[in-house]
Amino acid sequence: MALSADKGDGTYYCTVKFVAGIAYNNARKEWQAATFKPRRNFVIKLSFRETTKLQIAGLTHEYDEYDVTVTGEGKSSATPCLGFDGKPPSLTNEPPFYMPDKTKVLTCGLQSGTLSQYEFNVVNHRFLEIYTAGYVDGGDDNSDTPAISGGLCSKVQ
To answer: How many folded domains does the chain comprise?
Structure first.
């Protein structure tokens, strides 16, 4: 646990810099590419849990697990963000030689009935938020539009 400060632990204020996705054009009666006004900044908190070992093809790999929460700006409650297997998200301690920065990206999804996924790089503090709802449900309106947001996070604690 003494090394956890070096592992990305902390609270980060994330500012959305761009948003793009698809929107329904009522005049043309079709969906098309769209850019949206950046909004919905948030706070992401990473708390180092433990280092775990996993055997893959006879080799032992180490992963750092984190408790992760996301709190929307102006909201009082934090929402857990879990790995796609329902477990705490993790980062490998042994980056492959061909993509060393990719393994510094923590990926998780909100577990509150929303369809948002987050990718956060613990080294350069860049993030992506991917909202996957809308469009495929068959509705032809802008009540729920899929989008991808990105920006930067600043460590506050």
So the answer is: 1
Backbone φ and ψ of 156, nearest 5°: -110, -20
Six-digit token pair at 157? Answer: 């604690």
Cα–Cα nearest to 132, from 119, 120, 144? 144
Using CA atoms, how far residue 34 sits from 20, 22, 95, 105, 140, in Å, is: 6, 5, 36, 27, 15
pLDDT in tens, 97-119: 555 555 688 889 986 556 789 99
Q: Under a CB-based contact definition with an 8 Å cutoff, are residues 36 and 146 in contact?
A: no
Domain holding 138, by residue range, is 4-155
> Model pTM?
0.83
Q: Which residues of 92-120 are buried (b: 16+ CB within 10 A; e: fewer)?
A: eeeeeeeeeeebbbbbbbbeeeeebbbeb
